[in-house]
Design goal:
The protein is mainly β and 123 residues long. It has strands spanning 8-12, 15-19, 24-29, 37-41, 46-51, 54-58, 63-65, 79-83, 88-92, 102-105, 110-113. The chain is globular.
Length: 123
Amino acid sequence: MIAPLPHAAIAVLGVTAVSAQVVWTEREIMPSPRDAAMAYDSSRQRIVLFAANKTWEWDGSRYIRRATSIEPNLRWLPGLTYDSARGVTVLYSGFGSTPPQTWEWDGSGWAQRTPAQSPNNST
């Protein structure tokens, strides 16, 4: 058994598991895990999943597809993290995207950003 973390969630090989400090429980098959990135939005208490150029949110019991007018078109191994100071989830385009792209998800839509510095995306 994996030692659980408070209100944690993981996705491995397409299966989402959640923990409420007691035991991991399989909940649902997630959307395509290929080229996926996941982060926990602590302000909205949702897990944001970006997979196959689509945005999904886990509300604790199911995935909800969040269709937006603009969605990033990313490459291999994107990165996703939650910026609690600004209340946005930040997505980095991953390898093979020229030029590198940075996007922010605010819970309702994506906005492309141009940071002063960006990770090197060479392979």
